[in-house]
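Interim report, section 4.2 (structural modelling).
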Amino acid sequence: MINDILLSSNKAKGKRPYFLENPEVERVMNITMAVAMETATLHERLDTIERLLAKKGILDRSEIEAFVPNNEEVIERQLWHARYVARVLRMVQQELEAMQQGPEQNLSMEEVANRLRNS
Amino acid sequence: MPTPVNLPPTHDRLAKHAVFPEFDHDETARYNFLTNLNKHLSTVISPGNKVAFDKRVRPQFMAEHGRDFDTPDEVKEAMLQDPHYQTWSALRRSAMEMRQQVGRATVLRQANELAEKVAKLNAQSPDTLTINPDVSAPHYMTMFDSHIMPGSYHTELFPGDVSNAASYDSGLFVTSAGMLGKYTDGGGKALTTWLKATYPDFKPKRILDIGCGLGHNTLPLAMAFPDAEVVGIDTGIPMVRYGHARAVALGVKNVQFMNLDATQTGFENESFDWIQTTMFLHETSTHAMQRLIGEIYRMLKPNGLSLHIEQPQYTPQMSVYEKFIRDWDALYNNEPFWGAMHDVDVRTWMTSAGFEEKNLLQFGAKAENDMEYPKNPNAPEVEDHGRSPIWNVFGAWK
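Predicted structure of the assembly:
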């Protein structure tokens, strides 16, 4: 059986061109575009579900537009948003924490290993 | 509902034949995203390259050198430093790679089923498919993966594998933003429409399509001339195997497929009335092209016709910027001979083999799109360099 998960993302023969000054930025851009595609895909799936529900008379799409959450629902939804955005921007938070913490909280593991070896 | 721009059709509008890979909801949605991304890149982001060139790249070059650009290479070196061109190029490359990944992920999960379907259909008409195991892919095909398609046209992941052909069949829609019709045959259709209107007395009995790939532009020839015998040849075994099954599935009977090297086919002298190549020459090499035209002339009957759909040739009137921007695919979408093809003097190429100057012809044919989707004929159309739906055709009568 072929490993379609691995093979799907194979590199093509020939050197890959990089256009941005910094290849790390281009790598991140590629990952971001893939995520953008997945977001669009999710959006299309949700759109399909909404339209199917409307066709079956379960739900009118205008109900979605007019929906106002009650207080309990507001809390649940905002919690979801808070957790979501924290996940997305985790990296920035961690860089900030590194600035806030002193050098003792930012030892490299080489340094820690050295200290352990000598203590 | 009126739209401010010409929206591409959705991928589900492609016609499905018996060997077309199955797409689930999200796979379709991914291709829809990529089609829209390509459309956005070509109509919104790509024109910015000319703005960057006019507003900062060219003025800066002139200030530094005291003269204008002389060559497309000079433009390339300068543009590669420009942030807008960098961003557009990085995004376009990314879009091309994602198109390959999505197509591949879709076909590989069903690779065994596809191979079985193809084998079953091919067994229904064994006389019209010839596989020559001794014919290998030529060097100009094996040095790199064409269109950054991993494995290119010739690779089989297991015996009977046709996954790349199936991915190619499903994905041309994405790179052409759905302009080629529901069977991706808009080019071949444009050609036969032009031919029948211009030369109504031309009734070819035997037609050769060189570099036919999966036959998407071969079948329109067979369907337009149902009394003719059409032969499609390509060096990619998976391509002809899939192409033949596709033809059987679509009920086109007057066509056969063979894996053959076009520079040494073994066909008899003067055995074809019409010899066609469609977007094939830019996937060869200088040496192969020279051998090819000799072989075409040899196989063509007197009063026969040879036509080639290809990239437009560079002319002295074309600006260095235009030449530069049309070469993007050569370097960055793994079509290295595309750039060289722009500089080939095709008239000399044809006359060198024996075609007479007075019998040469050149015209443009607009790809026919029979897809049913809301079109807005009033929305402006922006040309995506090298991907124009107007096909450049040249050729000669013998």
